[in-house]
Amino acid sequence: MAFETIVKKQVKKIREPCLKCVDMVISELISTVRQCTKKLQQYPRLREEMERIVTTHIREREGRTKEQVMLLIDIELAYMNTNHEDFIGFANAQQRSNQMNKKKASGNQVIRKGWLTINNIGIMKGGSKEYWFVLTAENLSWYKDDEEKEKKYMLSVDNLKLRDVEKGFMSSKHIFALFNTEQRNVYKDYRQLELACETQEEVDSWKASFLRAGVYPERVGASESEENGSDSFMHSMDPQLERQVETIRNLVDSYMAIVNKTVRDLMPKTIMHLMINNTKEFIFSELLANLYSCGDQNTLMEESAEQAQRRDEMLRMYHALKEALSIIGDINTTTVSTPMPPPVDDSWLQIAHVQPHAAAPSPRRAPSPARVAGPCSWASACWVRPGGGAPRALQAGGFP
């Protein structure tokens, strides 16, 4: 049965991605283990032994997990459950195919858009020219550019067929031609329209698009048809065969959606149960016992040279700081200090400064220079010099 054969081929393609998923989980798990063991870097032997034990267990679980994944794929290949509640069934698939055909027939569906070079028309105009082609179920149009504002021409695909054209001597493009089966001109005065692509893959893709539009390749001879079996199959397609192919495609799509849903659901569960949770349980319950059974535990607890050097430096720093604190303590206990004398009482200065200015005694005027009382007959006074001696008047001869 065609349906079963196609489904089995599609299911087998899932096997490789599933195994790759397991490999990615294992790689991430081992990376996590190494990050966790970085905390034991001061004990390199213990860290190395722990990584070895856990990694060995993970590798053992890898084989078990991959076997289970392969078993899931084999179970899917063993039986095609066409009674699944999500499966559309043959009747629904045929109905869907008919609806799609009606939808295509009711509307002018766009099949393909892309750039093509018109090879033979451009010869008279100085060279080939590239246009933007739009292929629908009813016609073929080309525009000046991909904005589709300036339409150059549109022709119907009725009675059109395809044929290959050999490349020219100086041409590097791959060419195919459209011609009318009723010997009419395809475009203006041209019996065929030669279209060129950069690669053969583009030519094949355009041929497949024209086939969907009902433009079939030109029939070839018996010898060539034997060499190109796929082309002869394409030539023999008729509407009834197309409906059957569409029905099978709908059935395959529906069933593969069920398979993909099942695999996406079971793969994480399988990996978590057989890989992640099992490894976690092993670390909690069996890792310590495996470490004790490795041999001498003192060897495992040997420090690295860097850690021993760092410990010695910390011990030296500890003793130095302890000695410094002891010296500081001795200084605090042996030093004798005398108390400072009491402050001087200067309150009387403040009281004298606060007394008002009026209460202060008024200063006496300095006494006038003393007059010498004597038998002076004149009214002027005789002044006495402070240092003694005769007054100036007497010295000046003023005395009569």
TrEMBL record:
Annotated coiled-coil segments of the chain: none
Keyword rRNA processing appears in the UniProt entry: no
Keyword Endoplasmic reticulum applies: no
Gene3D superfamilies named in the record: Dynamin, middle domain (1.20.120.1240), Pleckstrin-homology domain (PH domain)/Phosphotyrosine-binding domain (PTB) (2.30.29.30)
One cellular-component annotation, GO: presynapse
The PH domain, residue ranges: 109-215
SMART domains xref list: GED, PH
CDD domains: PH_dynamin (cd01256)
GO BP term, example: receptor internalization
Keywords linked to the UniProt accession: Endocytosis
Residue ranges constituting the GED domain according to the UniProt record: 245-336
UniProt GO MF annotations: GTP binding; GTPase activity; microtubule binding
Name by which UniProt lists this protein: Uncharacterized protein
Organism: Marmota monax (Woodchuck)
The organism's taxonomic lineage, starting at the top: Eukaryota, Metazoa, Chordata, Craniata, Vertebrata
